[in-house]
Amino acid sequence: MQFDNFTKLMKLNWPEAYKELWMMYPKMDKISNYIGQHIEHLMNEQGLLASDFHLLTALRRTSAHPPYQLMPSELCNFMLFSWGGLAKIMKRLEDKDIIVRVNSEQDKRIRLIRLTDKGVKSVEETATKLHHYQNQLLSGFSEQETDQLETLLTKLMNSVDQHSALVASDTEK
């Protein structure tokens, strides 16, 4: 395996770093890249971009039933995009009839971003294919191992979030 070679070279040629660096980081990066490439491939099949998938899933998870919609400011918060970046994605998806802008029923001044039927179909198909891919990646894991992996990744993510919040508060001072 390519990663085994990476590890051997690190251990042989830079033993201090090998001892001090936990080899988890390059592994997680590689896994993340593979999954990201797969999402990109799935979206490209539909003439869309990987960033589009994140907007579509943000809209889809807002409710158990249609309409799947959010205010643009809520999308910015969910997706951590700048307003300019989000506006470009929304324009592209609107041109492809994946999303539509509608007036809020409660306040006509507010415009909501809503998945169209085509958008719902796109995100559902992509999520199904991604789920199948995920199952392939985890096929060598028992249910207990999968649960343990989920628990450990959640614990790590919470630690990262906590550390990131501390770093952010330190930089604001």
TrEMBL record:
Record's keyword annotation contains Transcription: yes
Keywords, comma-separated and alphabetical: DNA-binding, Transcription, Transcription regulation
SUPFAM superfamilies on file: Winged helix' DNA-binding domain (SSF46785)
Subcellular location: Cytoplasm
Domain HTH marR-type span(s) in chain numbering: 14-158
Entry-linked SMART domains: HTH_MARR
Organism domain of life: Bacteria
Pfam short name (any one): Staph_reg_Sar_Rot
Coiled coil: none
PROSITE patterns linked to this entry: HTH_MARR_2 (PS50995)
Family per similarity comment: Belongs to the SarZ family.
UniProt protein name: HTH-type transcriptional regulator SarZ
